[in-house]
Amino acid sequence: MKHVDVYWSHQSPYCYFSLDRILCRQESNDIPVTLRLVLPGVLRNVGKFGDASKMEERYFDLDTKRTAEYLRMPVRVPRPWPVECEPDTLYRARADQPRVYRLYHLNQAAIELGKGLDFLHTVSPSIWNGTTTNWHEERAMRTAIEQAGLDYDALSKSAEKGVESFMRTYAENDKTLQASGHWGVPVFVFNGKPFYGQDRFDQLIWRLGR
User: Fold this and answer.
1) How many CB atoms lie within 10 A of CB 104?
2) Per-residue pLDDT reduced to its tens digit, 72-102
3) Domains of the chain, CATH where assigned
4) Which of 29, 85, 161, 162 has the fewest CB atoms nearer than 10 Å to its CB?
5) DSSP string, 30-57
6) Cα–Cα distance between 190 and 76 in angstroms, integer?
7) How many CA atoms lie within 13 A of 200 on its CB side?
């Protein structure tokens, strides 16, 4: 059976941009998908990131908005970002990261219930589409998670209990991602070959059809 591993980071707008197409294919049973969370690059590959130049920041902003317009998807800089960075920096994460880790642990707990994509379907847009400020606060997270058909309180308990196991899972996912031949997100791996970026999704579908 054809199968695709999807490597995902909650810090990446390009993962969000791929979400609708992943969900569409999953719902039509075209592609059995395994969602594999990897921590944001600034946390898992610290040595590869430094201070971004103003040019890089400007291009990132331009490309994010342009890609959203092309895909007809709403987007806004998250308020707040999942990762807490040092002031006036794009790629220097603070040591303490309770917000992003809680988000990941909740998602991983949903994955272990077989509901990882359901979680993404409601939570990811709340981060990225501009409708929710302070998406990380309990009221907003509860609303998004319950819209996914999940029990917020039960999922929160699982997220708290599973921290050590989940951290090992993220590390293992990073290893298998790099073993496929790439390090970024989103990456779709089919037959051991990586398709990097939301703009490679159509090539993935083409390859699956061959």
Assistant:
1) 26
2) 999 999 999 999 987 877 677 888 999 999 9
3) 4-208 (3.40.30.10)
4) 29
5) SS-EEEEE---HHHHSGGG--PPPHHHH
6) 31
7) 16
